[in-house]
């Protein structure tokens, strides 16, 4: 018999891989990759660990430290030694557009600790209008949470301009008793969105977040409270605890005024209004014609403005500081309706808007030169902002309608503002079509 010749593999084909070949490939290729990955992970973890233990040693920037703080650090608190970047992000998930590490809370701290049920004024201050802060502290005689915005990108403790500004405020705490006793200043570093530094929702959120009382007053710039305003507001704390809003009517001088002496009482104010020297000032309306409603105010009875509410209404108002009240949106900080957007969120969330007639504020510009420098919006910019605001209004309608419906409160009074302001928007989206009629 003929011997069978072995079958040779066809030229160009590969042998079937064996276990020994696979082990060899694993040893040559896979193991180095695994060890490389482990080594890289250990090195990276070590770097992050040492950076956490000694954050200043790994950062090239210099923090603002030319002036000592006005209070001692509590070494027993872990939050005292935690960098602001981590502290702010942990405490406030909806953090500001500014880098949290550029926010220095309580850089200057008031000497007195305010009572928890007091009302804190939230405001904005610059090196050019610190005299307004002095005037406000004297008029309010209570806690103030102010934001000092330094117009700089690089934090350097050898910058003469920064040192000069901080020295100015440090001397202010030494020389002025009202500032020393009542004012907390939180330093913010970074370029402002607007060319001219002015109050925005970013500053209001920061000032509100670090306020040390249960209630906060959103006060516009160049606006001054009457002598007994705080005492009258405290009489309506029950409404604030129900997450409602208290409005302080603002009054302004007319062109017929020959002097600008502020009235101290309601009777003096009514007399000036009757003489056409002053009138209720609602931004965007002629005097005495806005939603605050002069005819209702003159009756001197607490009244609700919800039925006359307008989406561009932006009065000076008091709310609870806590999370039950929505934080102000920061998307509109380049135009004047940012405060109106803030109030709109609270209104859609179910808050009632009440006007306190016994208390009032006076809108008056002391610093006329600073006012003349304020940036004016062009016609095109105004149209763009109006369209943006309309889109925000629609988004807010849908957002708070979903929240209220998700909490099964659509048939409660909390949903009345959404039903009143947003029926067309909600029906166009095809949602709550049956519920909106109820």
Concise description?
With 438 residues, this protein is an alpha/beta fold. Helices cover 39% and strands 13% of the residues. The protein has a nine-stranded mixed beta sheet with strand order 1-4-3-2-5-11-7-12-10, with helices on both faces. Strands 6-13-8-9 form a four-stranded mixed beta sheet.
Strand content: 5-15%
For the record, what CATH class of the largest domain applies? Alpha Beta
| Main sheet attributes: strand count, strand direction, barrel closure | 9 strands, mixed
The outline comes out as globular
| Structural class determined from secondary elements | alpha/beta
Instruction: Tell me the number of helical segments per DSSP (H or I, 4 or more residues long).
Output: 16
**Annotated CATH topology of the largest domain:** Spore Coat Polysaccharide Biosynthesis Protein SpsA, Chain A
What CATH architecture of the largest domain do you see?
A: Alpha-Beta Complex
Strand and helix order: HHHEEHEHHEHEEHHEEHEHEEHEEHHHH
Gyration radius, in Å = 30 Å
**Mean pLDDT, rounded to whole units?**
80
State the distance separating the first and last CA atoms: 101 Å
Helix content: 25-40%
Name the CATH superfamily classification of the largest domain: Spore Coat Polysaccharide Biosynthesis Protein SpsA, Chain A
Describe the strand arrangement of the main beta sheet, using strand numbers: 1-4-3-2-5-11-7-12-10
Subcellular location: Membrane
Keywords: Glycoprotein, Membrane, Signal-anchor, Transmembrane, Transmembrane helix
Main location: membrane
Protein name: 15888_t:CDS:1
């Amino acid at each position: 018999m003929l011997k069978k010749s072995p079958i040779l593999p066809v030229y160009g084909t590969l042998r079937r891989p064996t276990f020994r070949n696979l082990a060899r490939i694993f040893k040559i290729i896979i193991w180095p990759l695994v060890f490389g990955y482990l080594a890289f992970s250990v090195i990276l973890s070590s770097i992050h660990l040492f950076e956490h233990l000694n954050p200043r040693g790994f950062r090239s920037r210099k923090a603002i430290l030319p002036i000592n703080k006005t209070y001692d650090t509590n070494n027993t608190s872990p939050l005292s030694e935690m960098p602001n970047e981590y502290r702010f992000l942990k405490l406030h998930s909806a953090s500001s557009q500014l880098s949290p590490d550029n926010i220095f809370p309580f850089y200057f701290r008031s000497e007195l600790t305010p009572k928890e049920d007091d009302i804190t004024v939230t405001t904005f201050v610059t090196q050019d209008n610190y005299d307004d802060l002095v005037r406000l502290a004297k008029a309010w005689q209570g806690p103030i949470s102010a934001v000092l915005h330094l117009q700089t990108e690089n934090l350097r403790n050898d910058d003469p301009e920064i040192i000069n500004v901080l020295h100015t405020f440090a001397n202010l705490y030494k020389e002025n008793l009202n500032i020393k006793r009542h004012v907390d200043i939180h330093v913010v570093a970074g370029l402002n969105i607007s060319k001219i530094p002015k109050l925005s929702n970013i500053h209001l959120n920061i000032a509100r977040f670090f306020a040390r009382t249960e209630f906060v007053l959103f006060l516009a710039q160049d606006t001054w409270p009457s002598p007994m305003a705080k005492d009258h507001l405290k009489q309506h704390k029950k409404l604030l605890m129900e997450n409602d809003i208290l409005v302080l009517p603002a009054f302004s001088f007319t062109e017929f005024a020959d002097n600008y002496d502020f009235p101290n009482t309601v009777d003096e104010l009514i007399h000036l209004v009757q003489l056409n020297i002053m009138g209720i000032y609602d931004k965007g309306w002629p005097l005495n014609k806005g939603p605050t409603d002069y005819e209702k105010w003159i009756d001197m009875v607490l009244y609700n403005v919800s039925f006359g509410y307008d989406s561009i209404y932006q009065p000076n108002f008091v709310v609870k500081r806590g999370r039950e009240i929505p934080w102000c949106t920061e998307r509109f900080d380049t135009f004047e309706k940012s405060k109106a957007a803030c109030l709109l969120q609270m209104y859609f969330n179910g808050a009632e808007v009440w006007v306190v007639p016994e208390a009032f504020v006076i809108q008056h510009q002391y610093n006329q030169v600073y006012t003349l420098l304020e940036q004016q919006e062009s016609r095109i910019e105004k149209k763009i902002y109006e369209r943006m605001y309309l889109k925000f209004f629609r988004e807010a309608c849908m957002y708070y309608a979903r929240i209220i419906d998700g909490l099964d409160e659509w048939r409660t009074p909390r949903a009345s503002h959404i039903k009143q302001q947003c029926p067309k928007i909600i029906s166009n989206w095809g949602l709550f079509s049956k519920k909106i009629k109820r």
